[in-house]
Design goal:
238 residues; mainly beta; outer membrane lipoprotein receptor (LolB), chain A; ten-stranded antiparallel β-sheet; three-stranded antiparallel β-sheet; 4 helices; 44% strand
Length: 238
């Protein structure tokens, strides 16, 4: 195993402990300008999120209406109500974003797909990197705010829905991931710099509870305004 990945896995609780767990649920409050741009302001102010840890599966509740919930996988989005009726469905959701830019508004299933795969990625790293098909390599170090961070380049397998094929994670001396760079392919390749803070440990697993996402510049700096997305996590239960 790559030694930087090994350090990071251990800092977040260890792969052995992770493999003993099956599901994770949280409450998530989303902010930032993205949701207004996409025509979905207020839909994600406070939602419940449940994920499976060892396959890409996410559910949100409530989603829109108080009795609606989602089931999101890499190839399907389903919105149902609590009576068991299908409210909306989108097969092969990624194809529906062809030609989109940052300003393109989304349907409800497209929103569910984006936050579904996004939260699954954010809540399962770095443990997902040990799954079959992932490739990792260490890049040169990065200096930021007086700290030196090691950088882990991760290449995702084709069967995992994610922002883009190759992404970069910045690891502090304590082994915790503090920053994550990617381009959002379904959003016209919008470059993101995603920062993690306020880490907490639950059931032996350490994960960040504050996420702040900014536009990334070509020199890897980022614009402080506008704040594109914020995510605040609470009520973490494995």
């Amino acid at each position: 195993m790559n030694d930087l990945l090994g350090l990071t896995l251990q800092a977040h609780g260890g792969l052995e402990r992770w493999n003993q767990l099956v599901m994770l649920s949280v409450r998530a409050a989303f902010g930032g300008v993205l949701w207004t741009i996409k025509g979905k302001a207020g839909m994600l102010d406070d939602i419940g999120v449940t994920i499976e840890l060892h396959r890409e599966w996410t559910s949100h509740s409530p989603f829109g209406a108080s009795d609606h919930f989602t089931v999101v996988t890499a190839d399907r989005v389903l919105i149902e109500n609590t009576d068991g009726d299908v409210v909306d469905e989108l097969m092969q959701p990624r194809a529906s974003f062809q030609g989109h830019t940052l300003q393109t508004q989304w349907t409800d299933p497209q929103l569910a797909y984006f936050i579904g795969y996004g939260l699954w990625n954010y809540l399962t790293f770095p443990f997902s990197f040990a799954m079959p098909g992932f490739e990792v390599a260490e890049l040169g170090p990065w200096e930021e705010n007086g700290e030196t961070w090691r950088r882990l380049q991760v290449t995702f397998p084709d069967d995992i829905a994610t922002h883009c094929k190759v992404q970069t994670y910045y690891v502090a001396k304590d082994g915790l991931i503090r920053r994550h760079d990617y381009d959002v392919d379904i959003n016209g390749g919008t470059p993101g710099a995603h920062y993690f803070s306020a880490h907490t440990t639950v059931a032996g697993i350490t994960l960040p509870t504050q996420h702040r996402i900014y536009l990334r510049n070509p020199d890897l700096s980022h614009e402080m305004e506008p704040l594109i997305v914020s995510i605040d996590i609470r009520d973490i239960r494995f």
